[in-house]
Amino acid sequence: MRVAARIIEQLHHLSLSQALTALNAPSHLHQTHAHLIVSGLASHPFTAARLLACAALSPSVSDLPYAKTIFLHTHDPTPFMFNTIIMAYSKTLDSITFYVCMLHAGYFPDNFTFPSLIKSSSASPTSLLGTQLHGHVVKFGLERDVFVVNNMIAMYSSFRERGSARKVFDESFSLVDVVSWTTLITGLSNSGQIDDARKMFDLMPLKNTVSWNAMISGYARSGRISEARNLFDEMPDRDAASWSAMVSGYSQGGMCNEALELFKEMVNGGKMIPNEAALVSAVSACAQLRALEDGRWLHRYIKEKKIWINVTLGTVLLDMYGKCGSISEAARVFKSMPERNVYSWNSMIAGLALNGCGKESLSLFWIMRFVGPSPNAITFIGLLSGCSHSGLIKEGQGLFSLMTQVYGIKPQVEHYGCMVDLLGRAGLVKEALAFVETMPMKPHPELWGALVGACRIHGEVELGEELGKHLIGLEPHHGGRYALLSNIFAAAQRWDDAAMVRDLVKGRKVLKNPGNSIVET
Fold first, then answer.
1. Is residue 519 very low, low, confident or very high in pLDDT (cuts 50, 70, 90)?
2. DSSP 165-208
3. Helix 276-289 and helix 292-304: axis angle, to 10°?
4. DSSP-based three-state secondary structure for 473
5. Chain centroid to CA 488
6. Strands, E, within 304-371: which ranges?
7. DSSP codes of every residue in 251-307
8. I need a surface site. Which of 249, 263, 290, 433 has the fewest CB within 10 A?
9. What is the C-alpha to C-alpha distance for residues 326 and 351, in angstroms, rounded to an integer?
10. What is the rounded average pLDDT for all residues in the chain?
11. Is the dihedral of CA 395, 396, 398, 402 positive or negative?
């Protein structure tokens, strides 16, 4: 009873934020509700409103279905309760239903009602609902509330209606704040109008760290990394998001060495604790560089700082180990993950396949079928690739049938490429060609190249000559295509034909394709 009394006292605290901490476990919500019903307090409007707020908004006991039940069983919900349930459902269009009920109950919406409604309208396929809500904002005289204005700018920006977003901003220019400016800048950069975003950024009377971060992220997404770095260096103050935006920009732009250098500068001396996005980008950079030692250092850092390895971070770690050739470490990360999604399973399967463990990838797939998520198209690319590298012909053919007939996954070019590679490596070149001819889409040159390569390896000179000439016709300026045909002739000791191909390269002034390698320094 003492505990119940303390909870109820906390529930009635003058501060709503304090009241939301009254319950710290989901079971307390049900127990407290039962106690309120027995004691007769459940019918008290203020008490019922606070209980609803805990069920709908409390970070520790939030239970939307239960909150909805409380609301629907309330005889005469107050405006506060309507606003609470609308806010709780702001990520879905269900909030609109509650709004209609609010209007039917005779209550007028206020500046707490519309931000949640406008946010939920972004879940609609078009801006029509948001435009209608904009009309209601004007109707109820709330177009001068800056919080409402900022949400309308964000809504129009999410639908890439830059003109409408800018119109709302201009019509409210006398009251806009730094959030308004930042929201408009973010919308412009997200829609590819990065130069317009920069003009607005330069016009800002007051900038905060979020404003700088928005502009840096915009430049990074647009591939204009040097301009992002210039802004980063000019920033008066940086937070974890600033560093993360720059590290992510480097990593996604293929500038992986720069991403790792900046990440190390970020954490050097404990000056900044990286957020999840920065860690994911840094580990991804290691995977792209095949930089195993840097990847191990990052993993140790994560453990030393006791950073929670969620499904996203765990997946990128095991992907890094797989791509760097340490499949045992990838497996340890995979086994230690408390939660796995389809990307985690796919990364582990692909890692096994990449490292020549085709049979092991198949074994993992059968486990996935029983205890994991449903496989997708990426799953089968990894599996077919593993079969190809391990020479598992029957298994690969069976997987292709399973993919199409059981899971209903439409084969993509990559799946056909894996099958052609599988058959070609096994010397079944004619079967591979027949497979290509059944493709519903036009085969890409790389696929023809794999076939020509298989012909060279397995001595199918006539077929190789035919396909090689076809490939050159598709890509007459690709030096590698001529090399394939020349090698076929050379392997068959047809020296005159090989010389003819080399002369053709010179006559057409075809450039040789440069080689490349990745060396960890």
1. very low
2. HHHHHHHTTTT--HHHHHHHHHHHHHTT-HHHHHHHHHH-SS--
3. 160
4. helix
5. 44
6. none
7. HHTT-HHHHHHHHHHHHGGGS----HHHHHHHHHHHHHHT-HHHHHHHHHHHHHTT-
8. 290
9. 9
10. 91
11. positive
The label of the residue with tokens 């001595």 reads: 459
Sequence-separated (6 or more) residues with CB below 8 Å from residue 465: 485, 488, 489
Residues making up the chain, counted from first to last: 521
pLDDT per position as a tens digit, 70-114: 999 998 999 999 999 999 999 999 999 999 999 999 999 999 999
For residue 165, which of 185, 147, 179 has the smallest C-alpha distance? 185
Place of tokens 């993950």: 337
Please tell me the predicted confidence (pLDDT) of residue 175. 94
Dist CA 258 CA 278 (whole Å): 13
Give the span between the Cα atoms of 23 and 54, in whole angstroms. Answer: 7
pLDDT, mean of residues 192-204? 95
> For residue range 236-249, what is the model confidence (pLDDT) as tens digits?
999 999 999 999 99
Give phi and psi for 193, each to the nearest 5. Answer: -90, 60
Q: Cα separation of 151 and 157, whole Å? A: 10
**C-beta separation of 400 from 419 below 8 A:** yes
| 340: helix, strand or coil | coil
Q: Crossing angle for the helix pair 327-336 and 342-354, nearest 10 degrees?
A: 160
Q: Which has the closest alpha carbon to 454: 412, 425, 477, 431?
A: 425
Residue (of 520, 139, 107, 58) closest to 325 by Cα position = 520
Determine the Cα–Cα distance for residues 291 and 473; give it in Å rounded to an integer: 39
Residues in Cβ contact with 427 at an 8 Å cutoff, skipping those fewer than 6 apart? 454, 457, 458
- Alpha-carbon distance of 357 to 322, in angstroms, equals 11
How far apart CA 351 and CA 364 sit, in angstroms, is 11
For the whole model, what pTM was predicted? 0.82
Tokens of 288: 């792209």
Tell me which of 96-110, 142-156, 195-209, 419-433 is least confident: 419-433
Q: Which residue has the tokens 């996203």?
A: 312
Report whether 352 contacts 358 (CB < 8 A).
Answer: yes
C-alpha 379: how far from its chain's center? 17
The single residue listed with the structure tokens 């919080």 is 147
Q: Tokens in use for 502?
A: 């080399």
Q: How far apart are CA 110 and CA 107, in angstroms?
A: 9
